[in-house]
Amino acid sequence: MQDITLVLNTAEKRVQFALFRAGSMLCAEDWLAQRGGTELLAPALRHACARLGFTPAAIGRIACVAGPGNFTGLRIGLTTASALARAVHARQAGINYLQCLAANAPAREGEEVLVLTNARQGLAYGARFRADEAGLPVPMGRTFLLPLPPLPEGFLPGSPAFVLGSAVNSNLECLRQALPASTRILTGDAAIPTPASLAAMERTIRWELEDQSDIPPLYMRDCDAVENLDAIARAQGRTPEIAHQELKRLTHASLTLVED
User: Fold this and answer.
1) How far apart are CA 220 and CA 239, in angstroms?
2) Going by C-beta distance under 8 Å and a sequence separation of 6 or more, which residues neighbour residue 22?
3) Which CATH class is domain 4-97+194-209?
4) In angstroms, rounded to a whole number, what is the distance separating the alpha carbons of residues 93 and 27?
5) CA atoms within 13 A on the CB side of 64
6) Domain chopping of the chain, boundaries
7) What is the pLDDT of the chain when averaged over all its residues?
8) What is the average pLDDT across 21-30?
9) Going by CATH, does the domain composed of 104-191 fall within 3.30.420?
10) What is the value of pTM for the model shown?
């Protein structure tokens, strides 16, 4: 029986997964994704299932963080979810990374949580959330990109009760000056989703509306290779125009499935 739920997160510098049965956590693993770290995901997942006494075929639901975050990390997590779902015929559903982090804040009903994470090159991903009656974060508008530091003038029409995320850790003094004195700035491990916050986001998914369709990624900016494509093309002795044409051809080409 496919009664196991898998939750995956590879949005920033860490790889995380957790396995649940009937809402109870069976195990959770978390490691820093240094060189080769993300390649450990599939073997680690297989070993975890073996230790728990079942095979990956018991996984019937897969919730994976869709973004925003590191381009390569997101691709590995989403590709793992897609491949596993095809292999075991599991349902898939996407999770917003910033909402997972917002669930780390001990917010009470009605309190606002601001999440800011690093997007590189002087940018940050951001989103606002308001806690519902259960303390779970509900989005207030869309996820956005903003330059940081400094915090743009007029960015804070209200007073968030909490602010957290990787961009908070790296821009602490800037944010202390810009945020109201009443705002609690959460640093350190608050910038890493806990197994409890991942579980909370999984519980908000309406699984009856999901199927085996691939999870659409939430990309807020191009990967570094695309942004640096002109320089890469010139270094290879090619013109940027031809490089962009080839990229468009490759990314829009139809896939042909070959069956044995």
Assistant:
1) 27
2) 3
3) alpha beta
4) 20
5) 30
6) 4-97+194-209, 104-191, 228-260
7) 88
8) 94
9) yes
10) 0.84
